[in-house]
Design brief:
Elements lengths: L8 E6 L4 E6 L13 H5 L5 H8 L6 H24 L15 E3 L4 E2 L17 E2 L5 E4 L5 E9 L5 E12 L2 E11 L17 H43 L4 H44 L9
Parallel strand pairs: 3-9
Antiparallel strand pairs: 1-2, 3-4, 5-7, 6-7, 7-8, 8-9
Helix pairs in contact: 4-5
Length: about 300
Amino acid sequence: MVIASLRHRVIFSLSAGVLALGVVAPPPASAQYVMVDVIAATVANAGGNARHDCLMGAPRSEKKILKARGYAMQAMQLYFEAMQSGAAPRSSFFVLDEETRWDDGEQTVGEEEIDLPTDFLARADATLMVKPQEFVRGGLGSNGQGRWQVLGADGRPIGSYTAFLVRKSGQWKIRHLALVRHGEEAENITQYCAEPGDVMPYRLRNAAYIVDYREGRVEKARAMIAEYQAELAQAEAVLADNPKNRTARKSAKGARNDIERWQKKLAKRQADLEIVLEDQREVMAEARAAGVSVDDES
């Protein structure tokens, strides 16, 4: 879920017309922020705005979510029935590559050993609830993550599957599958972009960059005020010796005007900084609630 208070428009531009990365989320009036984000920059050519929105947790359309959910439900039902009957090896239902993972809480295996463990949830008397308890479709590509509950013969939950599925060669297959017994803690399922868990770290970095930029703007205003205050002091020192010095009088007047102008800018920039600091605190709180590590000094 995208936090509503992250209301910024971020524009990063390099060598006019060569690379322009616009990063967009709902902005307040007159809010313009510059973000230099290595990750965002590397994917600029893949569509800056869309990629940023994706990494900020923007979901796909309801139609696309439902379509992916249907394919994922079918894939999980076929897997469960095959595991119960022994009609096909587990590997038939997995994407087999270096990212393949099957985890039952006691052991984790990859593609080479995927057929060895026993699925303790696929008992002969068990029933897979085909409708997932939770499901999200990735912001990019054809993939999704969901949780499917399994019931025992008495109709009570005995555990659940948390599955990450992808479309490969026109078929939806499992890439990661975690088995959890009833009562044990299961993996959090939250909106992601390219793979589960990639949204929150990006949002934390995005918030930190915006805060850094705004802090720099505040320091710039303070430095300008100090510069004009020094100019004013110098002019006043001249006027103390020669009150009729027209150059010093003009310099003093200009410095006072500049000090007033930059004090107004400082007040606005401090207010803007408070807004983005609050945004950052909200993102950090959400990250902690999701079990994501947070650097409090970032």
